[in-house]
Amino acid sequence: MVNYIEASSAPPKNTGAIRLYDTQAFEGMRKACQLTARCLDALADIVKPGLLTDEIDRFVFDFGMDHGAYPATLNYRGYTRSTCTSINHVVCHGIPNDKPLREGDIVNIDVTFVLDGWHGDSSRMYPVGTVKRAAERLLEVTYESLMRGISAVRPGARTGAIGEAIQTYAEAERCSVVRDFCGHGVGRLFHDSPNILHYGRANEGPELREGMIFTIEPMINLGRPHVKVLADGWTAVTRDRSLSAQYEHTVGVTADGCEIFTLSPAGLDRPGLPSLAR
């Protein structure tokens, strides 16, 4: 049994109930998410061969501080960095360090800022210099998977429709969908209900209702979908060491579809790749 609750009267913890937010909350999420999007835009100018992922982390921290926001990942459940930087076969939660980016790498940069109590959560892939066609194609498939998942969001549909749209497309492109991680409710809490699976069937999962806010963040592999978490307890990698990619948006369910809160104001939702008219 799925319970829905007005967010304004919900307790400040994840109880399993799905929060329904009002127009004032949507405005708060727009501001937080657009700050995150602007930071990801700015990163497009600095990601290049030789850049340390530690430098990316410092950039994100400073950007947040300069705009009155705090990185949600910093000290979250023992995580000590302001962002996640996941390179090549790292699926997610890569920890910034003193390793430089190399020509031909692909890197996911995941940023969540807390602004006035609202969490703006988004990530993008960045090609480092010139990448091989296989890597470029993976970025294209992963971004399209995200947008197809978003296109399935509307009141009355179920969360499974998002997963089905992503899985059907990605597998038709001979890629695989990671099943170990998922999207999630977001708002006043960093991680909330419901979980948004990136695979499944359209008639499965909770019903989508106006006022829900959540992330969609498919992780797509060139090889098999299986992953493992390294000894640091955070870094997830593909078991077959195939390339992995991820794009993430935060969306809110509206009366006739959804609003993408984290769209790039500069049109850089897929930095390093041609812009797409939608």
Structure characteristics:
4 helices; 17 strands; alpha+beta; four-stranded antiparallel β-sheet; three-stranded antiparallel β-sheet; 24% helix; 278 residues
Structural class: alpha+beta
Helix content: 10-25%
As residue ranges, the low-confidence spans are: none
Secondary structure tally: strands: 17
The helix tally amounts to 4
Strand content: 25-35%
* Average pLDDT score: 97
Order of helices and strands: EEHHEEEEEHHEEEEEEEEEE
Largest sheet: 4 strands, antiparallel
Model description:
By secondary structure, the chain is an alpha+beta fold. Helices cover 24% and strands 26% of the residues. The protein has four helices and 17 strands. The chain has helices at residues 23-43, 53-66, 133-151, 159-172, and strands at residues 4-6, 18-20, 70-71, 84-87, 90-92, 106-115, 118-127, 176-177, 183-185, 192-196, 213-216, 219-221, 227-229, 236-238, 244-246, 249-254, 257-260. Strands 3, 4, 6 and 7 form a four-stranded antiparallel beta sheet that branches. α1 crosses α2 and α3 packs antiparallel against α4. The chain starts with a strand and ends in an 18-residue tail after the last strand. Its EC number is 3.4.11.18. It is an enzyme of class 3 (hydrolase). Keywords: Aminopeptidase, Hydrolase, Protease. This is Type I methionyl aminopeptidase.
Quick description:
With 278 residues, the protein is an alpha+beta fold. 24% of the residues lie in helices and 26% in strands.
In terms of topology, how is this protein built?
Blueprint: E1 4-6, E2 18-20, H1 23-43, H2 53-66, E3 70-71, E4 84-87, E5 90-92, E6 106-115, E7 118-127, H3 133-151, H4 159-172, E8 176-177, E9 183-185, E10 192-196, E11 213-216, E12 219-221, E13 227-229, E14 236-238, E15 244-246, E16 249-254, E17 257-260
Parallel strand pairs: 1-2
Antiparallel strand pairs: 3-6, 4-6, 5-14, 6-7, 8-12, 9-10, 11-16, 12-15, 13-14, 16-17
Helix pairs in contact: 1-2, 3-4
